[in-house]
């Protein structure tokens, strides 16, 4: 079906006006008259069926609804501008857009990127994040990383690595506490994640403590929230490796029972089949898969 779009020139002028804060400032930026800006805003308001600005003194001020609309329009223009640079005849920038689950991006991918930048300083890597339990691939990207392979008719899919899980805690929480056996967790607070059901049950079963009942269980909606609670010393969590290996190496986390591990999720690299595969993207993919292979060779750090 054809796109039902408002007048595009009016949209452009509206975005500038909302950002500039007044018709007068927008007219200066666009090199138009105040009246020309006003007419385009009126045209857009007619198309949308509601006002976008209200008069306050001598100024026209964007409504709350208009400000929210302007933010989305601005993001759309940024996307169009980025696509024009990347696909235009004179496009020369080397930009790779990665979309990855928030925890994986923050705890594993970003710490690894220093190595890639050292090898390929002219290539810019931009990272956007998604909730790990959201299977929908939204937005524009060159590479996505997910815990499921997705639609393989639309994407070229390759495995990145498979995680293992074990108990994690902050060093401060374990200070003065000698933990020798998993059964001692009966007197502890366990931190659980709604988006990763069964993590504790699977680990306790592997450790021979399937019947263990802790002092308290606190549940959080997403893993990166649970992880912050662990770092802050609120209780024990189930951590994923090699994703959290750097946190253990730097002393932010400890693994009191590294000998008991459970296989976790597999991560996959997804690349749109119909996208261009320039040299800098191929270089990044080769580096990413090599980094994933090295990560999978790592064991949980004690």
Estimate the mean pLDDT confidence.
Answer: 88
Structural domains: how many: 3
**Total helical elements:** 10
User: What share of residues are in beta strands?
Assistant: 15-25%
Distance between the termini: 57 Å
Task: Provide the helix percentage.
Answer: 40-55%
- Widest beta sheet: strand line-up: 4-3-5-10-6-9
Query: Under the CATH scheme, which architecture of the largest domain would be assigned?
Result: 3-Layer(aba) Sandwich
CATH topology call of the largest domain: D-Maltodextrin-Binding Protein, domain 2
Task: Characterize the biggest β-sheet.
Answer: 6 strands, mixed
Q: Globular, elongated, flat, extended or rod-shaped: what is the shape?
A: elongated
Radius of gyration (Å): 25 Å
The residue ranges in which pLDDT falls below 50 over 5 or more consecutive positions are: none
**Structural class by secondary-structure content:** alpha/beta
CATH class membership of the largest domain = Alpha Beta
The name of the CATH superfamily of the largest domain reads Periplasmic binding protein-like II
Strand elements, count: 10
What sequence of helices (H) and strands (E) makes up the elements?
Answer: HHHEEHEHEEEHEHEHEHEH
Question: Features of this protein?
Answer:
302 residues; alpha/beta; Arc Repressor Mutant, subunit A; D-Maltodextrin-Binding Protein, domain 2; six-stranded mixed sheet; two-stranded antiparallel sheet; 10 helices; elongated
In short:
It contains 10 helices and 10 strands. It is an alpha/beta fold and 302 residues long.
């Amino acid at each position: 079906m054809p796109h039902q779009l408002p007048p595009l020139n009016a949209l452009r002028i509206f975005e500038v006006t909302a950002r500039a804060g007044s018709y007068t400032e927008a007219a200066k930026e666009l090199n138009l008259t105040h009246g020309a800006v006003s007419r385009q805003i009126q045209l857009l308001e007619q198309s949308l069926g509601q006002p976008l600005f209200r008069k306050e003194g001598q100024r026209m001020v964007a409504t709350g609804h208009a400000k929210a609309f302007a933010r989305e329009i601005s993001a759309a223009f940024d996307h169009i501008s980025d696509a024009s640079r990347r696909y235009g005849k004179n496009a020369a920038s080397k930009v790779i857009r990665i979309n990855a689950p928030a925890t994986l991006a923050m705890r594993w991918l970003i710490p690894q990127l220093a190595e890639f930048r050292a090898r390929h300083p002219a290539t810019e890597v931009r990272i956007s994040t998604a909730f790990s339990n959201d299977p929908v691939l939204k937005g524009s990207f060159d590479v996505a990383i997910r815990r499921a392979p997705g639609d393989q008719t639309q994407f070229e899919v390759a495995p990145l690595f498979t995680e293992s899980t074990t108990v994690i805690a902050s060093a401060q929480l374990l200070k003065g506490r000698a933990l020798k056996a998993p059964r001692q967790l009966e007197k502890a607070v366990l931190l659980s994640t709604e988006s990763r059901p069964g993590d504790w049950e699977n680990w306790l079963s592997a450790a021979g403590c399937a019947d263990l009942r802790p002092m308290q269980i606190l549940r959080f909606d997403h893993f990166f929230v649970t992880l912050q609670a662990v770092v802050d010393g609120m209780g024990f969590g189930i951590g994923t490796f090699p994703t959290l290996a750097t946190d253990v190496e730097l002393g932010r986390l400890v693994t009191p029972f590294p000998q008991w591990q459970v296989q976790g999720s597999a991560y996959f690299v997804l690349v749109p089949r119909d996208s261009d595969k320039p040299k800098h993207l191929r270089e990044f993919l080769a580096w990413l898969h090599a980094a994933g292979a090295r990560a999978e060779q790592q064991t949980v750090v004690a």
